[in-house]
Structure formats: C-alpha cells, structure tokens
Amino acid sequence: MDMTIESPTKNKEASVEDLFVFPPASTVVLPVTGTSRLFPVRRLFCVGRNYAEHAREMGHDPVREPPFFFMKTADAVLAPGESFSYPEMSKDVHHEVELVVAMKSGGANLPIDTARQHVFGYAVGLDMTRRDLQAEAKRLQRPWEIGKSFEGSAPVGPLTRIEDVATTVDSGAITLDINGHRRQAGDLEDMIWSAYEIIAHVSLYFEVRPGDLIFTGTPAGVGPVRISDRIVAKIDGLEPLTLDVVARASGR
C-alpha cells in the first residue's frame, strides 16, 4: 500500500511500515442501496429483550423498564453476500432478526424528538448468538460477550438511506425464514422501545458517533441454525438479507 503520513515523532513523512508495527486493520464497510458509496462501521450497540413475546420466550416478564445494551465489535459484521461460518466452541447457535439503525451523526443526551435527524439509514440485521455459551455466562453472572460478540455474529443487509425508505420504521412486518420455513414473525410496532427512544437512551451512556450501528431487538421465534441452512430475513421497505450457514474452514 503506497501511503505516507506525517510521523508524530519526526519532521518527515513516514510510510505505514515505518510508523506502525503492523498494518492497521482495514475499515469495516457496508454497501448503500442506490449508490456506490460505502458506510464505514464504528461500533455496534444491541438492545436486549425489546419485544414482549421474545422476552417471555426467554423467561422474562416484558415490562417497560429502561432498555439494556450489550456491544459487538465492528469485526462481528458480515456484509451482504458473505456466509456465516458456524463458530467453534458452540453447539447451539441461534438466529435473531433485527432492525438495524445506522447513524450519520449523534452526540450525548439526544432528545427523542431529534434522534431521527442523526439517522443515515436502516438495514435488516441478525444477532447471531451462541446460546449455550450465553446461558452459561448468565448462570455464572458473567458478561455476555462470549455468546454475542464473536467474528461474523452480526450479518447486516444493504443499507437503505432514510430518505429512500418508503415507510416509517414505527411499524412493518419483520420475518425470518430458514430453508423456506417461517421461524420468526412480528411487527416493528411490537417493540417495547421505539428505534428513536433507543437512540436517545444509548446517548445517555455513550456519545453516539457517525458509523455506529444500533440493533433494536428481535421478535419471538428465535432458534438454532445448522450448517447448510439458508436464512432469509426481511423487514417491510428494506432490502432483504440472505445468508448461508457453512462449516468453518479448517485452520480458521
């Protein structure tokens, strides 16, 4: 890579090889429908148990308590067209279809009524979960990262710009099929906390930044995936997400 930047320690230009001990990681990007431009991903915030029926199927009482969050790293993102490699150290990986909100700007302590102006667009996403490892972490009262934040655990479909979305994200069907069979079905209006309420709440604890993705929760029907499964996830008004589950290549 022919790239030069000014060295912070020397009054001359330095190559990447001179400045860094190894090349910096490349930026994770997502395609944007209707344009050749790419959306650079920064962080992933995921809200838990935001649909009443899903909360019940996970053994919880779905009251409107303040939302809680967990995070995934940017390298959890799978861009459209990539396959999901079944991860090692788990025998119970589950699908969770979600509306993903992509932020173009942000800040701290954002009011709910201005949250929309910071949104770049929306996509269909999956929160792939190593359920057995998550359950063990819960039992031991440990963090969830081992079950939630692993490579490829956040497949995301093409982004649709907010000005190109034909409908609002306050309502609309959200579904997931595996091999042609319906597994999850709900409506965005069933969310306990709306997308804009979630943005405002995240901003109470973190300064929302351009490039952040916010996963807004999943409806009921989560369940296991198997190698050779084909997943098709849809939300009204957005590009669908199609994902193949494959065996992890040896040595990876």
Briefly summarize what is shown.
This protein is an alpha+beta fold. Helices cover 13% and strands 31% of the residues.
Features:
single chain, 252 residues, alpha+beta, six-stranded mixed beta sheet, five-stranded mixed beta sheet, 31% strand, disordered N terminus
Structure, described:
The chain has helices spanning 16-19, 52-57, 131-139, 145-148, 195-205; strands at 4-6, 13-15, 29-31, 38-40, 44-47, 69-72, 77-78, 84-85, 93-95, 97-103, 119-126, 129-130, 154-155, 160-161, 173-178, 181-187, 213-215, 223-224, 230-235, 241-246. The strands form 6 sheets. It has a 6-stranded mixed sheet, with helices on one face. A 5-stranded mixed sheet has the order 8-20-19-15-16, with no helix packed on it. The chain is of the alpha+beta class and 252 residues long.
Q: Calculate the terminal CA-CA distance, rounded to whole Å.
A: 25 Å
Helical percentage:
10-25%
Query: Which descriptor suits the 3D outline?
Result: globular
The helix-and-strand class reads alpha+beta
